[in-house]
Amino acid sequence: MRNADGGAGSLWRNHMKSASMIQIVLTIHIIIAATLVVMVLMQKSEGGGLGIGGGGGGGLMTGRSAANVLTKSTGILAAGFFATSLGLAVLASGSNAPTSIIDQTAPSAEPKEPSAPLAQ
């Protein structure tokens, strides 16, 4: 049985391509999320928040330039997180056709009886 869109296995191949693309984007999404958490925690706390990088003493990244680098990289990671979230939503919704529970038939609760008695 051949489909109009290119063959019997083309739907299966498209589904497998979509599944592998979802896995790749999901992996990138997780890496961005973990890096984003670390970048936010490294920033200096201005309002008594959870900033690990806050405090007085000198450290690896101090001064205004380090704050600018952290702020810019946090913004870039946030944009990447937003983009991968949208990409995952589009990829996940592309494989499902809309369905309705009204279109489904309910199973009958009556047991079916044989139409004629069995011969002995």
What's the gist of this structure?
With 120 residues, the chain is mostly helical. Helix content is 52%, strand content 0%. It is rod-shaped and about 95 Å long.
How does this model look, in words?
The chain is mostly helical and 120 residues long. It has one domain (10-93). Helix content is 52%, strand content 0%. It contains two helices and no strands. The chain has helices at residues 10-42, 64-93. The mean pLDDT is 74.
Order of SSEs, N→C? Answer: HH
The helix count comes to 2
Uncertain runs: none
- What is the CA–CA distance across the termini? 44 Å
- Estimate nothing, just give the exact number of structural domains: 1
For the structure shown, list the relevant keywords.
rod-shaped, about 120 residues, mainly alpha, about 50% helix
Topology:
Elements lengths: L9 H33 L21 H30 L27
Helix pairs in contact: 1-2
